Structure prediction request, 110 residues.
Amino acid sequence: MEERFIASFIHCYFIAFGVLIGGTIIGSIGSFATGDAPFTAMSHIAKRLRIWAIVAAIGGTFDAIANFEKGLLDGHTIDVFKQVLLILSAMGGVKTAIILISWFIQEDVD
Prediction:
């Protein structure tokens, strides 16, 4: 059980990281194809993809809400704690990707 949670924790980090990096780069290619500035587009796309990267990493909002409900109503507080850790892991992946994109485009992504 613990090994599976650690694997899920690592997966959440890298899924959020991959969604943000991949979505930003591919989205900027689309902006380049339409004549817009790709680095400026990368900043805007990264801002918009933040929350979706977290949601994708934790498997959608319904699973998270179901886990919270199970943890709170059934008294399984460890499930709530694990869900919070998974969300924090996804947020860490997003933050790492934002830092990498900011470094790449030499512009702050706020």
Observations:
- The CA atoms of residues 69 and 89 lie 20 Å apart.
